[in-house]
Amino acid sequence: MTVTQRPAQASAKPTGVLLVQPKGDLRNHHGISTYTQHWDKDSAKDTPEMMESRKAVYTDVVNSYYDDEHYLAAQGGIKPKSRVLDVGCGIGGPAREIAQFTDATIIGVNNNAFQVDRANKRTVKAGLADRVSFVKGDFMQLVEQFGENSFDHVYAIEATCHAPDWEGCYDQIRRVLKPGGTFMMYEWCMTDIWDPKKPSHKDLQHRIEVGDGIPEMRSIAACRTTLQHVGFEILHEEDLSDRDDAVPWYYPLEGKITQVQTLWDVVMCWRMTTFGKWTTANTVWCLEKFGLVPGGTHEVGEALKVAANALVASGQQKLFTPMMLFVCRKPSDSA
Predict the structure, then answer these.
(1) Which single residue of 7, 72, 233, 305 could bond 66 by disulfide (Cβ 3.0 to 4.6 Å)?
(2) Would the pLDDT of 20 be above 60?
(3) pTM (2 decimals)?
(4) How many Cα atoms are found within 13 Å in the side-chain-facing hemisphere of 131?
C-alpha cells in the first residue's frame, strides 16, 4: 500500500485564509508558507501549547499539503444504491473505485477547495458524475452539513488522523450514519509496541506529525477506546501492516530500486534515493526562487522528507501503522 498524504474551523488569526489566485488557482499559498510554524523540529521542545495551536488550525495545516478500497467496501457491506460518505476524500480516487466496484452513490467531503475541484473534474471525465460527487466541508461539522441519519455507510481512508480530536470527529460520523449503518476506516496509529515514555519512540511520533500535518498521532488503543466511547460497536479490527508480506508497506519511501513492483515504482522509488531527494529539493528551491511555485514549498518539501524517514524507521520497528482497519456499526436502536 502506498502511503498518501491526503488531506472548518477558523483560527483567531487568519493564518490560512483560502486565497483565490488568478485563473482559478485555489491552492492555499499562505498555508504553505506558514505550515511549519506549528511545530518545533526538536520533539523535546514541542510544547502542549504548540499542540493545541495546531489542533485549533487543523484546517490550515491539512490544506497545506495533501485492492485496499475493495477490501474496505466488502468488509463494510456496501451494496448497490447505498448512500455512502467518504470523509476526507482527497481528489476522489477511492470514491470512484468503490462506486465502480459496488454501484453505490458516494459523496466525498474535503475541506480543501482545490482538491474538491480536481475531484469533480476527474469524476466527470471518468463518466461517474451521476453516482459520485464531492463537496467542500468540515468533518468536524458533518451533521450541520448533511443532517442526522443521512448515510447507509461512511468510510475514511488515512484522513481522520488529521482531526483535532478523534472523539468529536467519530461522533459526527456516527450521527450522520443511519441506525445499523457501518463505518469503515484505515487509520494512522502508533502501535501497541510504541512507548511514549521512550525518547526515541516519542521523537519518531513527533517527526511523523511534523511532516504529515497531523496535530497529534494517537495509539491503536486510544482509537479503539474512542470509537466505543462515542457509541460504535466494533465488528472487526486488523492492522494490515502487520501481515507477513514479502514487500513492506513503506517500500516506496525507502528508495530501494531493488524493491520496485511496477514501472511507475521505478520513478517513485528513485525520488526517495539520496540523489533523487537532492535533485527534487534543489529543483523546487530554484522554482520557488523564480516564483514558479508558492513561497514555502521548499520548506514543506523538507518537512515531508523528515516524515518519510520517520515513517520508514517506525515501520521497520513496527511502531506505526497507516493501515489500522476498523469496521464499526451504529447500533440499530440508536437515535
Answers:
(1) 7
(2) no
(3) 0.77
(4) 17
